[in-house]
Design goal:
single chain, mainly alpha, 2 strands, 23% helix, two-stranded antiparallel sheet, 137 residues
Length: 137
């Protein structure tokens, strides 16, 4: 299950197939093993996936949601107004309360105060010497 990245829905992801042999799902292989190595005190680390997903729905935007419904349906809209436009009247979390393209806070830290483009690490723009290493042309 994951919350949205730019949309207004909780998505209940289901595995396409069971892990074969001794292989493990992404969650188990990565997140759970990292938690064990870091001796994470998080109580969810030993719980079944279904229980962890159900507990994740007890936050404000998903309060009252039921994991079984999300799992069966595949999605559930967040508890936000319709239409939802949180910054339509401004009120950005910036000192001015407006969308700032130039950041005084970053400038004060000696960082670049304007937005910039950074090429993806594995791209021709970032690594010209890798010219033949990419499948795309």
């Amino acid at each position: 299950m994951h919350r949205s990245y730019g949309h207004l829905y909780v998505v209940g992801q289901q595995p396409g197939h069971r892990a074969a042999g001794r292989s493990a799902s992404e969650q188990r292989r990565i997140f759970r093993r990292l938690a064990a190595q870091w001796a994470s005190p998080r109580p969810a680390s030993g719980k079944p996936d279904e229980q962890i997903a159900a507990q994740g729905l007890h936050r404000t935007a998903t309060a009252g949601y039921d994991w079984n419904t999300v799992r069966e349906r595949g999605w559930w809209r967040l508890n936000v107004p319709t239409p939802y436009a949180p910054f339509a009247s401004g009120h950005f979390p910036t000192p001015s309360g407006r969308c700032e393209f130039y950041s005084e806070q970053l400038a004060a830290q000696g960082l670049e105060p304007l937005p910039d483009y950074v090429a993806p690490y594995e791209s021709r723009a970032a690594r010209p010497s890798w010219r033949g290493a990419f499948l795309w042309r």
